[in-house]
Q: What sequence folds into this?
């Protein structure tokens, strides 16, 4: 089982990113669940959502305590939340950032999702949409296939710019 | 068709297939998405139901009762305080023998103002004459809702059915969902005592001490008869759509010395705990109780039983534990865990089995003395 925790702020699309990722994994022929953790959230508050991907049906509903990967859609949450908490040794960290960030003991990568969203003019209520480009970055990492990523995005969004943003993120993603 | 859905949307998808004549509902967290989705289906024309946006849950059930007595299919959904607000009417729905189907998204009761999963809401409806089923996956929420209509409307039953799914844990999680073409799996509704303007009769008149008990017995007789109807419906569903459901879902129970009994998502996660325990050489199994009413005959002979109650009856104990002890006449280890959405993992569930003390009650997260 591959377990992913997504950190974002309310309104940034972290929950939808989890859902897209799970949908893409299902298109890959795998089992997946996407579970937002619902607290007293409001726009701007740090939130987490969870994605589990496995070859067998997933029977776990409790929160992910030891993720294989952490995705940070908003680097500013790192000031208030320990995003590395419980991350498995050697686990992956993907950060929405223009700059590379190193974390001892973990494999980190970065991509400027905000810049990509702004370039495609993917902005809703003043917030750049990060959930579709991040799926492209995850396809680059091999978490889901490119075809399934695009299929999932097209099923949930009619605007083709979302697919374009995912493709850009795929290309710009640091190795 | 393979898609991804929340538990809430899966219920709405099932309702869309069954086309109730009337859906009357009031939104409440975490049920809201069910009625939003149904309202959307109705407004887009995908679902030809009359959607009645009522001013309260009491009215939602009253509207369902009024519609149902004309002999049409009805649906509603609620949660927690909404369910409690319906309470007077839920008794009436069962007593009037109306096959209303309701989804209840299990949520704790205030105060405190807690919106997370707990089963006490539905268990406070235990004695109303409603049939109750508890589900554990998005797929099961969909399948159980479809079957609920057939069971409720069967002429040997004619009682309302409540489909229970854990708030947030299941209502808001996204999992794969295979939708089916229901076809004639659920036959058209025929209510023998439907109001008929050509044959006017009195309904709900004064019933004397020489008659009332007959109505109560008639409910009980039908609940007993519902066992066969549920079995047949679940077997037919398996034959037609390939997914098999029982009164319980048993996992590794055959040779087990100790069995976890739980309902809802904890009952499913318990299977992962069983895998852990088996690796340690502990012969453990899991029995997820699906139907609470009618309460099934549980095959627990010769096994130690660890009961997980996500509910409580103050001054008595875990409600499920009490029911099981009443049936098996054996001590259980009664664990009270998950109240108000308290986080309980498969590691915790395995630990309850390892540290079981038969005949005792343990409140998870409270001090060790309890």
A:
């Amino acid at each position: 089982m591959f377990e992913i925790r997504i950190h974002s702020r309310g309104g940034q699309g972290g929950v939808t990113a989890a859902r897209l990722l799970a949908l893409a994994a299902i298109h890959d022929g795998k089992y997946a669940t996407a579970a937002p953790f619902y607290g007293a959230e409001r726009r701007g508050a740090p939130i987490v959502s969870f994605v589990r991907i496995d070859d067998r049906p997933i029977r776990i509903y409790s929160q992910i305590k030891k993720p294989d990967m952490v995705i940070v859609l908003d680097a500013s949450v790192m000031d208030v939340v320990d995003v590395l908490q419980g991350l498995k040794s050697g686990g992956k960290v993907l950060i929405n950032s223009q700059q590379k960030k190193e974390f001892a003991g973990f494999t980190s990568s970065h991509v400027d999702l905000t810049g990509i969203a702004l370039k495609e003019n993917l902005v809703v209520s003043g917030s750049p949409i990060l959930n579709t480009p991040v799926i492209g970055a995850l396809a680059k990492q091999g978490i889901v296939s490119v075809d399934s990523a695009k299929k999932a995005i097209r099923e949930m969004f009619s605007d083709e710019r979302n697919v374009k943003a995912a493709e850009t993120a795929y290309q710009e993603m640091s190795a | 068709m393979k898609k991804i859905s929340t538990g809430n949307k899966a219920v709405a998808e099932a309702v869309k297939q069954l086309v109730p004549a009337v859906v009357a509902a009031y939104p409440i967290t975490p049920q809201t998405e069910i009625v939003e989705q149904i309202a959307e289906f109705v407004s887009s024309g995908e679902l030809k139901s009359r959607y009645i946006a009522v001013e309260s849950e009491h009215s939602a059930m009253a509207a369902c009762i009024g519609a149902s007595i004309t002999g049409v299919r009805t649906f509603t959904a609620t949660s927690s305080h909404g369910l409690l607000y319906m309470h007077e009417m839920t008794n009436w729905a069962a007593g009037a023998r109306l096959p209303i189907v309701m989804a209840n998204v299990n949520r704790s009761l205030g105060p405190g103002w807690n919106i997370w999963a707990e089963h006490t809401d539905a268990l406070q409806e235990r004695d109303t004459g409603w049939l109750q089923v508890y589900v554990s996956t998005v797929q099961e929420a969909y399948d159980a809702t479809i079957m609920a209509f057939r069971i409720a409307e069967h002429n040997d039953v004619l009682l309302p059915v409540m489909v229970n799914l854990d708030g947030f844990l299941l209502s808001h999680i996204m999992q794969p969902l295979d939708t089916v073409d229901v076809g004639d799996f659920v036959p058209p509704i025929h209510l023998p005592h439907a109001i008929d303007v050509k044959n006017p009769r009195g309904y709900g008149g004064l019933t004397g001490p020489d008659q009332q008990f007959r109505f109560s017995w008639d409910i009980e007789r039908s609940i007993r008869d519902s066992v066969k109807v549920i079995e047949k419906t679940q077997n037919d569903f398996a034959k037609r759509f390939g997914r098999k459901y029982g009164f319980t879902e048993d996992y590794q129970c055959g040779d087990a010395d100790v069995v976890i009994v739980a309902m809802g998502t904890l009952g499913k996660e318990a299977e992962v705990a069983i895998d852990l325990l088996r690796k340690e050489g502990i012969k453990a199994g899991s029995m997820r109780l699906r139907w609470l009413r009618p309460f099934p005959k549980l095959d627990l002979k010769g096994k130690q039983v660890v009961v997980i109650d996500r509910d409580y009856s103050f001054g008595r104990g875990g409600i499920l534990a009490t029911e099981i002890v009443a049936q098996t006449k054996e001590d259980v280890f009664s664990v009270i865990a998950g109240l108000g959405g308290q986080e309980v993992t498969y590691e915790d569930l395995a630990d309850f089995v390892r540290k079981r003390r038969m005949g005792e009650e343990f409140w998870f997260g409270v001090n060790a003395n309890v």
